[in-house]
Recover the amino acids of this structure.
């Protein structure tokens, strides 16, 4: 398959000058180390990691703002830091915390300006704009100054604006930050639909597990500048944390369970919530044992929340690479 | 290639246009500036009236009392229409929003230049209208000719570009300085004093006049205002030539600083 993004041993070292004027010492910080990565066309990936892991640094190198210390990269067949101007026409970028819409003007005005900035032909632009207005449900507030829009409306317009020039890949940096539950879900649905129906390649960073689950198929976890996990979202959940959560309701107060490989998360008179380590004991066996504890009214088996999985991966990454950031030179 | 230039200039024209529209949306703020402008002009009218009466002169440095007030209306309108380019560039550098601009197929300096024009066209025109009304009400008309207005409108674009180049470069200084506010204040005060906002250059001591006239500050404020009050093709020609030389020099300087700044962005991410 055709790769939209290809990274080969990408490195970025920041030189940090510290100390007073006379006693200057230079410290090197390896922000990104040896990242290699391929993203095929039309894939949606979540690029996640704790603060300071190297996410923004990578995005900045992919969009051509930052020059790497060593390594190769190609985005849509172009070397970002050498052909930034050319690349700019083919990529879309949304920063959740920084607006590209003009604050005092309606979104429609920004769209017209963007059409000029990206040299869109009048007919193409109008068609594309009308489609985006319809799909993103912008018609009711297209003529209202951005300052009077709700954050949900603004972000919808923001994402639509980034798609106006029909980019082949879109970088979304925390697009749902600050949105309420409904607005968040709407935006995720829109991005996912656009990815699935239009074949848009989506590169998403977020701290919200829901974004990752609802938008991305593939997840790449980065920590201390290195990729610590690269897998399907579903696989990550299943494999990385070999545990399940079992919630049971009883008709009568149950006996206390004595099964190895489980821990009790919550227990009240009629209910029991257990975490099962499936490496030690298979889930069927636990269910069998639980049925013996008393008359069961209801039983549910859940995967642990994705947030917990992610926290677990981050924590592991910390153990793997202690103090990698403090290499004094 | 020609087509490309056309497309590129269309972008910047649109940026100027949309800035104009955006500025028209701030009517409240513009309105408060009008009141300020009217008060300033009133105060100066009183001061100059005393000066002219006490000295008994009809002309002070080539200016009649009425011309002096019209001159003030223009210089104040120019100064009060100054956009906050420095603050915005400074903020972009500090908050890292510069990268958003770099991701777009746009030149960052030209983007700001277009915004400057968009903003100044709206603000300067409005200031001028208010200033003209106030001054007309106080001292009546001066012999305005079409030629004067034409010469004036030829001198004003380069004046705005000159002012822009300095403010933009000061904003970029945020890459190296903790705070650019100091530079900004120093520069704006120099423009006010050496630019001839309050007092025309003719009223400065004789020996400093030639120096001040060659410096770019007076070409931003004094030059255009003088042309409006006292149109002269000869004066325009000298002014345009001086403005042009300074625009070239300051553009080179700005581009050098911008290049250094970009190197820093490419190395550190801004």
């Amino acid at each position: 398959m055709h790769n939209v993004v290809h990274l080969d041993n990408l490195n970025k070292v920041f030189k940090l000058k510290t100390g007073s004027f006379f006693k200057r010492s230079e410290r090197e910080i390896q922000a990104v180390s040896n990242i290699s990565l391929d993203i095929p066309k039309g894939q949606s990936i979540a690029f996640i990691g704790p603060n300071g892991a190297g996410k923004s640094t990578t995005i900045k190198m992919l969009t051509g703002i930052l020059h790497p210390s060593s390594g190769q990269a190609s985005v849509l067949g172009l070397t970002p830091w050498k052909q930034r101007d050319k690349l700019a026409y083919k990529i879309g970028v949304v920063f959740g915390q920084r607006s590209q819409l003009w604050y005092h003007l309606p979104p429609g005005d920004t769209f017209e300006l963007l059409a000029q900035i990206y040299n869109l032909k009048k007919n193409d632009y109008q068609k594309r704009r009308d489609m985006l207005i319809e799909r993103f449900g912008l018609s009711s507030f297209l003529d209202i100054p951005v300052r009077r829009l709700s954050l949900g409306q603004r972000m919808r317009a923001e994402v639509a604006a980034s798609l106006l020039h029909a980019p082949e890949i879109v970088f979304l940096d925390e697009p749902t930050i600050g949105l309420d539950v409904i607005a968040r879900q709407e935006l995720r649905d829109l991005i996912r639909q656009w990815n699935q129906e239009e074949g848009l390649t989506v590169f998403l960073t977020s701290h919200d597990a829901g974004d990752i689950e609802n938008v991305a198929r593939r997840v790449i976890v980065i920590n201390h500048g290195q990729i610590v996990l690269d897998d399907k979202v579903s696989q990550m959940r299943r494999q990385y944390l070999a545990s399940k959560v079992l919630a049971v309701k009883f008709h009568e107060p149950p006996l206390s369970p004595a099964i190895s490989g489980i821990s009790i998360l919550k227990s009240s008179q009629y209910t029991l919530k257990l975490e099962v380590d499936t490496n030690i004991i298979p889930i069927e066996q636990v269910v069998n044992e639980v049925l013996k504890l008393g008359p069961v009214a209801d039983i549910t088996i859940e995967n642990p929340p994705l947030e917990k999985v992610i926290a677990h991966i981050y924590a592991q990454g910390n153990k793997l690479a202690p103090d990698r950031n403090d290499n004094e030179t | 290639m020609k087509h490309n230039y056309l497309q590129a200039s269309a972008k910047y024209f649109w940026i100027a246009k949309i800035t104009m529209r955006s500025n028209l949306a701030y009517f409240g703020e513009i309105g408060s500036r009008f009141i300020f402008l009217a008060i300033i002009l009133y105060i100066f009218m009183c001061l100059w009236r005393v000066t002219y009466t006490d000295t008994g002169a009809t002309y002070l440095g080539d200016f009649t009392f009425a011309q002096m007030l019209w001159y003030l209306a223009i210089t104040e309108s120019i100064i009060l229409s100054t956009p906050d380019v420095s603050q915005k560039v400074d903020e972009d550098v500090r908050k890292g929003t510069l990268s958003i601009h770099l991701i777009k197929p746009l030149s960052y300096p030209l983007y700001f230049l277009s915004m400057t024009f968009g903003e100044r066209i709206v603000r300067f025109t409005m200031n001028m209208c208010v200033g003209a009304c106030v001054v007309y009400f106080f001292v009546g008309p001066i012999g305005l000719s079409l030629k004067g207005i034409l010469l004036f409108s030829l001198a004003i674009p380069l004046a705005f570009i000159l002012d822009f180049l300095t403010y933009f470069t000061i904003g970029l200084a945020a890459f190296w300085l903790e705070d650019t506010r100091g530079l900004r204040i120093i520069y704006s005060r120099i423009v006010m004093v050496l630019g001839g906002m309050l007092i025309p250059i003719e009223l400065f001591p004789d020996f400093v006049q030639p120096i001040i006239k060659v410096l770019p500050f007076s070409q931003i404020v004094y030059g255009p205002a003088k042309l409006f009050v006292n149109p002269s093709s000869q004066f325009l020609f000298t002014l345009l030539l001086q403005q042009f030389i300074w625009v070239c020099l300051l553009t080179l300087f700005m581009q050098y600083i911008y290049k250094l700044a970009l190197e820093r962005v490419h190395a550190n991410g801004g």
Notes: Chain A touches chain B at residues 14-15, 56-57, 60, 63-67, 81, 84-85, 88-89, 91, 93, 95, 98, 100, 102-105, 109-110, 112-113, 116-119, 145 (CB under 8 Å).
